[in-house]
Structures are given as C-alpha cells and as structure tokens.
C-alpha cells in the first residue's frame, strides 16, 4: 500500500500554489494511498520497448501566415482584472519580503 | 422543430419563449442552468425570424434553442466552468464553437451546470450545487456535462453542447436517456473551451434523437486555424449517415473487457438486446479482445490530473477571476496561494495535487511516463479491433444513474463509472451514447455506446440511426417520452 504523509501533501500543495487547511492536508493524505494504489496499476504491465503517447494525433508543427489581426482593446483586456492601474494589471508585490 | 420553423408553423421567438417558460417552470427542481440569457436568446430568435420572413436561406437549425455547457466562452455572458475562481467573469470573446452556432442562427438559452472544470462524473463537484436527474430528482444526471444532459432530458432545450474528456458527454447522455456524441479529437475546435486535459478534451453535441445530434455535430465540426490541434481535412457527412438507418453487412465488434462483471444486470440485459436488434438488421456481431483496456482507468487518472495541474496554473489571481488576500503588503505568491485555496473545490485540488505528484522528478517515469505508454497500448488494441470490425460497442456506463451523495466520499467508486468511456479519449477516437431502454431493477435509462476510428464519426450515426429506428418502433416512441412528468403546469 502506497502512502503519502501530511507533510508530503503540504509540500505538493506548496508546489501547486494552493494554501490548504490542516484538515484538508490530513484528509487528502489519508485518501492518497488508495488513489495511488489504483493508478499504480500502470506499473503492472511490461512496458519495455513501448513508445509513449503524449497526444492522440501525429502532430507536426502548424504554421500560419504572420499577419496582423484585430485583437482586444486595453479596456477589453482589463475588463476582468481583479485590480488595475494606468491601463495595466495591478499585481501584488513580487520581489522581496513583505514589510 | 426545424420543419415547423421552416414551414412557418411556429416562429423562433415563440419556440424560444416556450423553452424559457419551461426553464422557469422546472429548473428550480432540476437546476440544469447556471445562467439564463433570456434577453440575448429572444434577440437572436427575433433576428432569425426577420431573416426568415425576408426569404433568406437559413440553416436547418436556425431558430432552434440550445443549452451551452459553462465551459465554453460566450462574449459578455458569465462563464464559470462551475468554479468559484471564475465567478463573475465575462469573457471578452466567443469560443469558435459559439461563433459557429451563432452563425447558424441557433439560439443560446443559457449556460449549464457542470462539475468544476469538468472534473467529475455526477455534476456534484460544481461550486454552485448539483444538478438533479429529471428521471428521478434524488439521482445525479451524471457528469461532467450533467447540466446540458438534464436540460435536454427535461425538455428545457432540444439541443445542448457538452465537453468530453473521459466520458463527460456520453455518460450523462446514458444516465438521462438521450443521445450524446464525443467527436474525433481535433474535429471540433478547442478555442475558447476552458482546458482541463488538453490532449483529451473535446466538445460535442447532445440531442433527443440521432438526427438532431448529427445536425448539431455538423455545425460544430471543422478546421480552425485558432486551434493548432484542429484537423485540417474533409469532414465526414454525419447528417447523411444519420439518415441512412442501415447496418446490413456491417461488422460490429463487442469488446470483451467492457461488459459482464461490474456491470449492473439491467444495463447488461439492455445492451445484449440491442446487439440482437443489430444482428436482426443484418449486422455481423464479432467478439474483440482489448486486453490493455484493463489499465485505461489508471492511465487516465494520471494523464488527466497531470495535464490539469499544468492547465490550471493559469488561475493565478493576476489578470482575471478571483483574487483574495490582497493588500497589507501581501506578496503575489501569498495572494495566489490564498486565492487558489478559496477558488478551487476539493476534487480540483485533489487532481492538481495528484498531477503535481505524478509529474514530480523521481516519480515522472513510474507514473506519468508509464501512463503514456499504456496509452500507446490502448491505441494498438483499437487498431487491431478496428481491423476486425467497422464499429465497436459496449454499455456506456456500468450502472444507471446513482443517488446524489452515494459516491461523493469515495473517489475510486466515482472514477470507476468512466471505465467504458475513457479508452475512446485516450485514443482520440469518436464515440456515441444512445438510449437502449430502461433497466428492469430501477426503471432508469441505459446507454449503448458505439465507437469508431478517428474521422469515421459518420459510422456512429449510421449504426446509431439504425438501432434507434428499430428500438423506437419496438417501444412505440422515443425513450425520453417515458420519463416522468416534471413541474406543476405541464
């Protein structure tokens, strides 16, 4: 039986940028063993020499002509912004420690 | 409906108003819609009526109302994907699917409920509460496109659009007694379809009959330069195929791995009967073996969460959507962490964490890498099976509609409901679910699934129309006419 500790889940949550309550961390850790056991079945098959598929289609590079198309106005682009200033998205502090 | 409109027996405005009234009447109980755009719908209906009276040549579906899954953007109309993180967001553009249906003159009634970001099989994961199955309001309509399926099943809309990443069109179609099709991957543009798992996602049509579904499929499909994975080729004529109703001489392959143990008796019984019907219509039934399908579910629940953990990174509280915890010098990272905690529901968090784990160094090869190789084996199984048969068939879902809350605490039981639909997504081929009757033990609809190779979507409609015609004449009407009455006044 695979398992993941509360601290393992906390580490993954930090990587995924999701703050989680203690209760959520514990409950997710308890479910994770079961889920991992179910998906670990992919390791029961002999996969030597099998090529991976990342996509259902044989993908080639897709090119288009480099022409200018009309796009959103600044007002449209900002219409869903949680905060804006001087026709720009206003974001919280990204450098250094908060005061 | 299309006939009555073109003959002038009814106007689109009348038809649209009738459906808006029906929504007002039954949706408080069904809860299929998250947003109803009465004003926009009536305006589009009026435009179509004006065009018709001026003698303009119109598409057969012009003026017919439709319900749209809330995963597709529609300019100016709230689009949430069933998530709090997008509450109140109004897209600045139409998805390609929406542009196409607007151009055809189809009337969009509103946006339908869904599992958050299409992650789920019951619509219970919506941040806005569950949708209820019109056949039995104590049960789920399936998911994730449960709102769209319930709207069609409850006569709130004759047509609907859903999206299918692991069965999210076919399974709810089965559980609500209607027709649903997942087109070939790349046949319908994903531009403006909010991404869950990009290599599996595909939008598709719902209808009450195979022909209705084909007409909508035809409007949606086509190459789109805005989607680099969109197929640039001639598309099969699904409408002509849906009018054929002929399976004489066709080979129909029954997948050994997708029946028997784990399938409810009534589901298996209706499936077996439908096979006999197809045989009596002149099709040849063969058994095919797809041994790797046993691992499809495990592969799917690694690939889809892995892709979602990357796709949902875009919800970062910076450019649109929810932002919480801003101010007092909080850092961007702290705001992101707080917003994603407040904005995402349990199932979405669970899948993001699982995907983050499967993609992390040290585990990548064992989990995500192995799942990608299983995907190759499944494609090879299909190739061998399609060498022996024109189409493959199975029950759509192992059970009929389950009770609300029955599986919500048991993710593995919930995931098992997708066991028969997932292989189609992993291989990028197409599949249809159509009604096969009611299960004896609970009197609830059973779905019959038809699968065809990539770009052979017409075969689904050819076989589906033949089976439907035979079953409808046996039943003396469409299955949906046996659904219990809803609401007070009608």
What does this structure look like?
The complex is a heterodimer of chains A (99) and B (490). Chain A is mainly alpha-helical. Chain A is 32% helix and 4% strand. Chain A has a two-stranded antiparallel sheet. The longest helix of chain A is centred in the first third of the chain and has 18 residues, at 22-39. Chain B has a single domain (2-293, 374-482), classed as Amidase signature (AS) enzymes (Alpha-Beta Complex), CATH 3.90.1300.10. An eleven-stranded mixed β-sheet of chain B has the order 1-3-2-4-6-5-10-11-9-7-8, sandwiched between helices. In chain B, strand 7, helix 9 and strand 8 form a beta-alpha-beta unit. Chain B is globular, with a radius of gyration of 21 Å. The model of chain B has no long low-confidence stretch (mean pLDDT 95). Chains A and B meet through helix 1 and helix 2 of A and helix 10, helix 11, helix 12, helix 13 and helix 14 of B.
CATH architecture of chain B: Alpha-Beta Complex
Q: How much is the average pLDDT of chain B?
A: 95
Count up the domains of chain B: 1
User: Helix share of residues of chain A?
Assistant: 25-40%
What is the name of the CATH superfamily of chain B?
A: Amidase signature (AS) domain
- Would you give the CATH topology of chain B? Amidase signature (AS) enzymes
Can you count the beta strands of chain A?
A: 2
What percent of residues of chain A are in strands?
A: under 5%
Chain pair forming the biggest interface: A-B, 55 and 74 residues
The helix/strand series of chain B, from N terminus to C terminus, equals HHEHEHEHEHEEHHEHEHHHHEHHEEH
Outline of the structure:
The complex is a heterodimer of chains A (99) and B (490). With 99 residues, chain A is mostly helical.
Keywords for this structure?
heterodimer, A: mainly alpha, 2 strands, B: 490 residues, alpha/beta
Secondary structure elements and pairings:
The complex is a heterodimer of chains A (99) and B (490).
Chain A: H1 6-15, H2 22-39, H3 74-77, E1 84-85, E2 88-89
Helix pairs in contact in A: 1-2
Chain B: H1 2-6, H2 12-30, E1 33-36, H3 38-53, E2 65-69, H4 96-103, E3 107-112, H5 146-153, E4 159-163, H6 170-176, E5 179-182, E6 203-207, H7 210-220, H8 238-244, E7 251-255, H9 265-280, E8 284-288, H10 296-311, H11 332-343, H12 346-359, H13 365-388, E9 391-395, H14 411-416, H15 422-427, E10 430-438, E11 445-452, H16 457-475
Parallel strand pairs in B: 2-3, 2-4, 7-8, 7-9
Antiparallel strand pairs in B: 1-3, 4-6, 5-6, 5-10, 9-11, 10-11
């Amino acid at each position: 039986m695979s398992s993941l500790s509360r601290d393992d889940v906390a580490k993954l949550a930090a990587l995924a940028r999701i703050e989680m309550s203690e209760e959520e961390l514990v409950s997710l850790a308890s479910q994770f063993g079961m889920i991992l056991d179910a998906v670990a079945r992919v390791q029961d098959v002999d996969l030597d020499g099998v090529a991976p598929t990342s996509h259902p289609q044989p993908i080639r590079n897709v090119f288009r002509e480099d022409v200018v198309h009309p796009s959103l106005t600044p007002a449209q682009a900002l219409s869903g912004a949680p905060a804006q200033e001087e026709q720009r998205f206003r974001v919280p502090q990204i450098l250094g420690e908060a005061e | 409906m299309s006939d009555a409109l073109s003959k002038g027996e009814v106007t689109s405005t009348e038809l649209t108003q009738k459906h808006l009234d029906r929504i007002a009447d039954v949706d408080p109980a069904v809860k299929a819609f998250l947003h109803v755009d009465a004003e926009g719908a009536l305006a589009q209906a009026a435009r179509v009526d004006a065009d018709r009276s001026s003698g303009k040549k119109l598409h057969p579906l012009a003026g017919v109302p439709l319900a749209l899954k809330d995963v597709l953007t529609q300019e100016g109309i709230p689009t949430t994907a069933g998530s709090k993180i997008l509450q109140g967001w109004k897209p600045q553009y139409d998805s390609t699917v929406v542009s196409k249906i607007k151009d055809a003159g189809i009337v969009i009634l509103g946006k339908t409920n869904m599992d958050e970001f299409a992650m789920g099989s019951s619509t219970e994961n919506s941040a806005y509460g569950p949708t209820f199955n019109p056949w039995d309001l104590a049960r789920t309509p399936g998911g994730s496109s449960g709102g769209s399926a319930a709207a069609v099943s409850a006569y709130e809309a004759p047509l609907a659009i859903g999206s299918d990443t692991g069965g999210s069109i076919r399974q709810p179609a089965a559980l609500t007694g209607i027709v649903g099709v997942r087109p070939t991957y790349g046949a319908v543009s994903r531009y403006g379809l909010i991404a869950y798992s990009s290599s599996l996602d595909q939008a598709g049509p719902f209808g009450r009959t195979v022909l209705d579904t084909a007409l909508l499929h035809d409007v949606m499909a086509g190459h789109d330069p805005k989607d680099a994975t969109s197929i640039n080729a001639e598309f099969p004529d699904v409408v002509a195929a849906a009018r054929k109703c002929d399976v004489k001489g066709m080979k129909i392959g029954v997948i050994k791995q997708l029946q028997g143990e784990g399938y409810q008796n009534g589901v298996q019984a209706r499936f077996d009967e439908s096979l006999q019907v197809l045989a009596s219509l002149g099709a040849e039934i063969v058994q095919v073996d797809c041994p790797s399908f046993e691992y499809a579910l495990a592969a799917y629940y690694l690939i889809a969460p892995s892709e979602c953990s990357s796709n949902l990174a875009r919800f970062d509280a910076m450019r649109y959507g929810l932002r919480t915890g801003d101010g007092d010098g909080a850092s961007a990272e702290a705001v992101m962490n707080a917003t994603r905690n407040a904005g995402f529901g349990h199932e979405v968090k669970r899948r993001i964490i699982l995907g983050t784990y499967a993609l992390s160094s040290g585990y990548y090869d064992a989990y995500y890498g192995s799942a990608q190789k299983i995907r190759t084996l499944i494609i090879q199984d299909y190739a061998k099976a399609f060498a022996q048969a024109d189409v493959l068939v199975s029950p759509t879902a192992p059970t009929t509609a389950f009770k609300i809350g029955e599986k919500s605490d048991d993710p593995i039981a919930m995931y098992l409901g997708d066991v028969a639909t997932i292989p189609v997504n992993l291989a990028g081929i197409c599949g249809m679910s159509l009604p096969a009757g009611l299960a004896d033990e609970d009197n609830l609809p059973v779905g019959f699934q038809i699968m065809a190779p990539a770009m052979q979507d017409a075969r689904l409609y050819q076989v589906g129309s033949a089976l439907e015609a035979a079953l409808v004449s046996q039943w003396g009407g469409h299955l949906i006419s046996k659904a219990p009455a809803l609401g007070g006044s009608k």
